[in-house]
Amino acid sequence: MSRDIFIVSNSVDELGGVTTWSHQMARLFTDRGHRVHIVGIAPVAEEIRQKLPADLPYGMTTLYVTHPPKARRLHGIKGRLNAPERRRQAARRAQMRAKAEQLSELFRAAGPGAVVIVTQVWAMEWVALADTKGLSVIGMSHESFEASQKSTRGDRVRRWYPEVDRLLVLTPEDADLWIRAGMENVDSMPNPLPFMPDSPAPRTAKVVASVGRLAFEKGVDLLLDAWADAAPRHPDWTLRIYGAGVEEAGLRAHCTSLGLDDSVEWMGSTDDVLGALSGASVFAQASRAEGFPITLLEAMAAGLPAAAFDCAPGVREIVRHGEDGLLARLGNTMELAGHLDTLMSDAATRDRLGDEAFRSVRRYSSAEITDRWEKLFDFLER
Amino acid sequence: MPDVSVVVIVYNDAERLPTAVRSVLDQTLRGVEVVIVDDCSKDRSYEVAQELEAANPGRVRAFRLPENSGGCGAPRNHGIKQATGTYVMFLDSDDVLERNACRNMLAAAERTGSDLVSGMCVRVHLDNRWGKTTEWYPWIYARTRTLESITEYPDLLVYDTLSTNKCYRRSFLLEQGLEFPVGIHYEDLLFSAQAYVAARRITLIPNHVYYWNVVEKAAAKSISNRRHEIANFVHRMEIHRRVDELLAAKGHTAIKTAKDAKFLKHDLVLHLRDLPLLSDAYRQEFARLANGYLAGIDPEAYEHVTHLQAICAYLLGKEDWKNLLAAADAMTNKGRLSSPLAERDGRIYWCAGHLDDAEGRRILDVTDQGFHTTPLPSLILGNRLTSYEDDGRGKVTLSGAVVNPLGRIAEDAELSATLEFRARRQIGVRSFSFPVATVRHAGDTIEWSATADVGGTVRPLGIIDAVWDVRLKLKAGGDRMTTRVSVGGVDLESAARLRVRPRLTRLVSDRFEPEMTKKGNLSYVLTAEGPAAVRTQSLISSAMHGKAAGVVKRSLRRALKARRNIGSGEQKVKVYHEVFSKLPVKKGTVVFESHMGKQYSDSPKAIYEELVRQNAPFEAIWSYAGAKPTGFPEGATLVKRWSWQYLRALAQAEYWVDNQGFPLALAKRPGTTYIQTWHGSALKRMGFHEPRTKAQGKPAQDRFQAAVNRFDHFLIRSEHDVRTLAKGFRLRDEVLLRTGYPRNDALVEAHRAEADSGERVRGPLAAELGIDPDKRVLLYAPTFRANADGAVEGFEFPFDVEEFADRLGDRVTLLVRTHYLNSVSLPPSVAGRVIDVSRHHDITPLLALADGLITDYSSVMFDYAVLDRPMIFFAYDYEKYATDIRGTYFDLLDKAPGPVVATADELMQAVAAFDEADAKYAEARRRFLAEFGEYDRGDAARQIVEKFFTRSGK
Fold first, then answer.
1. A207-364 is classed CATH 3.40.1180.10
2. Nearest to B8 by CA among B115, B84, B89
3. B8/B38 Cα distance (integer angstroms)
4. Residue of B694, B730, B884, B886 to mutate, interface with A, max A Cβ within 10 Å
5. pLDDT tens-digit profile of B692-748?
6. Fewer CB within 10 Å: N-end or C-end of chain A?
7. Do A173 and B143 touch (CB under 8 A)?
């Protein structure tokens, strides 16, 4: 059955994972014959805008011309007396109703079986005001339960999503956590693979690759600690660190203080992730926090065995320890070093895990994931 | 065909039936049907069911059994026959389904292909003013889980015996011929067990699916209806037998064992609680039924229950009512010691009886509980009411007996007591005390008797403080103990309700009714008897559910929270920073603390004593933790850790001296100098080198760094410390003081004296401990162990201490000192041969006394090296300790200056061959000291004092 599918996000082109995901899914749904419409609530500033191709095969709408003012709750007497702010907030609410009406019009024009996918909880505030009668509404949270709890999104998900037909999170484990936190409409849906090479990397170069922003939560400092433990036993191996970021200077200094300058190469950021991965034999990830790490998926798709910290449900969902990669307890750099040591010393294990990763990661292929979405649309009509 | 049929059974419940049915029709899953089965009600239930059918054609069908079956089995069986859905669920007419229940169950069933999906049941306490709900066995439903067979998770069958929180594939029920038993109570137990065993796949989901409405007050039972329970117990035993037969037929022995353990833990307890109130005839009948069943229990099940649960089962088997009732009291009141205990052959037993029986000795042995060594005030003693009399108005005379375990309350201890009435909710009026006229020794108990004019004295507020507990405060010599009064077999039902005058007048409530709490203790509840009070009570209880009551309840909660907050850490930290830290620094004041106030010891003590010796002009303030400081110096001002005085002292101090860390939340002002002495060189990774710290987020790491940055000076003993501790805490080099540890000055001195004189002199400590001068003294000082989260595990001997005493006790006195985070209790059998020295504040004199050291990974090894005496390393879990959780800075096996042993037997052999080892490791010990203690030269305290505290040094 061909459906009208609305993907509603904070914006249509903000640089980041959600935008990449929305346009990937929009293309996949379009390929299956669905009519897709991507809706953004507000435009974003030039410097964080993602460049989109000109000829998108689906519709795209942004509700606001400029970003709406920040919502503020006015408490107590002081709040009551703050007349200008009260006027601003009243105007904001009026404008929200108008924009929601614009959404309602789009929804009303849809055929039977239409679906609204709300990718971010902020956008839900507009969808909640709109008329969604006869449509299935699916809310999404594109981060781990723990990450939500550490920000205001934890409370906002609880406030805005309890009435949606299904709330989708990244992994079954995150779904369980949300259920235990009192949400009863939760299910999970993984992200699809961005690419799928025909064959695994040759794994001949004595190179361990790491790909990611050089930011604290990506734990490159911990990767260097682990490397300092593992590298002395493997003088012919190199650690290539792809990525750039605010922590670069500090990390380079840390690298030097550990005496690792000879075995670590700082590669900067790259557009050709697959190329970078193909030139390595092992993938390392020492993140302190992750959602559903796409670079880990990419490394496995390239056929590399990964050594990673088991820092989030998304990681243990993707990697099965000992079968298609090796996981270490978060922060235990000795254990991560041990895994790197294993993968560097033992070519047979490296190949076995890498080949298995290449095979098993296909459960996230775009075809599989699109099937799961279509099954969900059917289920919600029962 | 609908996806799910929900079978709703009803009996005489016309009023609530529509709500139950509505909860099905309002499901988010649309493909559901309702099958109502009326068990031939006498009220309008069936008519209501038919009306619901008429109003919801195609979605609701109503059926009626031709005659009443008296249970839930028959109507549910009929429902299964009538259902048409792919899946079947059961709902009782007084309960409701969660709105998403059917969708979540269906999704799980279709995803996994399970025959049976089970979700969490929630009990809704309808008569609770605060809308309380409790989840039913939440640990079973902590996460989504699919079982290929019930054998993967026996606890599911054993604990969740409900049939209603589940979704069954209808074809599965039909193929397996699964039906509820009819004509017996507890039909759910058998049905669910059959379903679990038959299911080829079972999925558990953490969702709430079923709201079980309960009214607790209706369940409060009088003695007379407790007697009917023997009939229920007969049914219960019969159902258990049938489930056991089922398990036996399928060969599920592991499930049987788990079920037996639950029987000991739960089912038995449920019934034991009532025993004190029941007649001998009942007890005998109960024992006959229970013991018949207990005889078939797998002995292995006893391994999975607490010592008290095993004791209860054993004593029930012996029909030893006196000791059983005491044990049951202890089991329902966790931590209570309700038996006088008995010592026999160096072991401690729950009671003196049954010790000629080997099994009795095994089960009744409670030596490991440490009742014989725990300080008296820390024991919670059982106190049984022996008589209750009143004058029918407001005066009561209570008598009782407090247990005197092992005669630890000495014959000559002076006794006194007060009886306290205490509001359970502590608002406004809190407690009233009455003198206890008689308190005296009587064999293995302390008997007491008090007459209290409750009506004339106790003035409750009237509304909020409805429940008052009765406690006896006993003073024996210098020890104070507080006990709750357990009702035991005393009959309270014929007792009068006492007249009271609440502060909010008698219009609110006018009677004080003695009551036995759920745990069997005496309390009083405010009730209404006069017509005015009765009217007010009903007004109040209806008002409690109104909108206005919501406001009152919320503000009450806020008020309670605010009161709790006044003394909270958060508030104190705020006052510390915003008030105390603005006061001027008091020149010459020094705040000392050792191990977070737990001890007067270590380098802070050594510095303090050096200051006193040099007569330096300063004011010392020592911090202590716990209720009362014992063993702290008299010349210093003592402040309790985290008290207001403590915070003020820290805020205004010129110096902070401590060995571990003043509270991390407290900033140090620039005018204060912080001398961090630290408490040992490092084997295991520290600070930022610990995996736990590495895993932390940025804010937590920044907080830790800020706390460590407070150190102005940090004492080190060697360059090893520079490479490890200093780096682990990211300390700047100018912070490091290469003085060695002040605490080790005494050891350097002792070593020098011994080398000079050629003989080792045992000081007064040896005599104090009663050590035989002819025996060698060994100190066993293991470190603590923690799991990956940093939680400290309890101490257990890694070797049999009684065997140690038997094999080596004629040559060796073993001193045992646990880490200060741990404690230990030794059996009386080893007295004189093994001595617990854990409560000594300072370890240094113990090190000086010991002829040899046994440790594992404690930093005490680095200090003891100063003495150049033999060491044995009992590293039974080195692999795990070193590599698994935390990691070490060097390999102990490489550098240990003594034999490293892994098993208890090797340890005892090494102790036996002590002298040989001594000489063999002399060179290794010298290397070890050179590497880890090069700056310990015996003058550390003097250097510190001269540098900071005497004018000459400044």
1. no
2. B89
3. 9
4. B694
5. 899 998 899 999 999 999 999 999 999 999 999 999 999 999 999 999 999 999 999
6. N
7. yes
